[in-house]
Specification:
Strand 15 and strand 16 form a beta hairpin. The mean pLDDT is 84. The chain is α+β, with helices and mostly antiparallel strands. It has 13 helices and 16 strands. The structure holds iron/sulfur cluster (2 copies). One iron/sulfur cluster binds next to helix 12.
Amino acid sequence: MSSRIQPWRWTAKIAQAVLVLGLPFLTVDGESALRFDVPSLTLHFFGARLPMDEFFIVLVALLFLSFLLVLLTMLFGRIWCGWLCPQTVVIDLTRFIDRTRRSGLLSRAASLASLAVISALLAAGILWYFVSPYAFVARLLAGDLGPVIGWSWAVLAVVTFLNFAALRHTFCATVCPYAKMQGALFDDRTLVIASDPARMGECMHCDACVKACPVGIDIREGLSAACINCAECIDACAGKMGRRGLRSLIGYRFGIAGGGGGLVRRNAMLAAAVTAAFLALLLVLAFNRSLVDLEVSADPFLRPSITDDGALTNGYILSVSNRSQDRQELALSSEGPAGPLVTEPDRIVLEPGEHRRVAVMVRSPQGRAGSVTVSARLRSDPQRPLVKELKLQDPW
Ligand code: SF4
Ligand code: SF4
């Protein structure tokens, strides 16, 4: 069998491309499954709405993903680069176009035009994580993209085109910060692609591994920072050695010496512990987040007063935000030192994502002052009522 790893890589690459370009089209409760809405500064995440004031959850999620990447790099080296990095995926998927650039002016022009179209599609794919793809396509067909979306698309498309037409794998070795960071994360037990030193006497010096390498490395000379772990050399050597009934001289090895197997070691355990801690924090934050945000302050335009029947009234401003994708009904109540108080209005209905400031009157029939607790109960889930309580200062 001449090729063993590349079919799996192609499967992973195509799945990743379909996922990245297709995800913005997926909707949950009528909203993009994953999109940061710029006008409302809200992240839509599979049915959840995360407004800007909840971005600490996104920050924790990013920290978790960063440490997970550090851990995976310590254990499995540049597995991300070879299998999932969008840069590698697009370069591999456009490799046949790039090759036609070397054969004549017409082919070169056709190749560059194809890359320009693909760059425009990729740039649109990036924008769809900020603007709904359905709205984007509708506005594009109507010729009404607007200057912000239009210019963002144009700039992204040009940068993407220059990257894939001029830089390609040079980006990985020169610009990519993750590639630079990897050197510090590798140890002598990290998974790498390397030749087997014990079997190099079997090498036919056919140079098939060097010719197959997209970045022009001779892996027999040892590890290189430019290696993107594409495993092309493994399959190239497997093809040559397979004719002799032998295995590839190049393969995945835990450490160049190949004897350092095992995932458990101190630095990896430390990274795993930090990753697990951020995951636990993320889960706690995600499962305890409130669907409705409530802030209460004294109404500056309504002074406390005593009515003719001796009741003490006080005005408050409730600032409420519906962070969910559903209509939410809030039941308001308040309580003073002597028991329940009259609250007007006692019900607020909020549309999905709606933010509203509501003037609320609290009346104490006994005319007694004191601290007041205002509660907002979410009626959408009677089994699990959400209660938001705030202790208000006695304003008089
Ligand atoms: S040496 Fe070249 S062909 Fe082999 S994995 Fe690295 S980049 Fe790919
Ligand atoms: S492909 Fe294999 S046999 Fe040929 S030069 Fe490379 S390591 Fe040696």
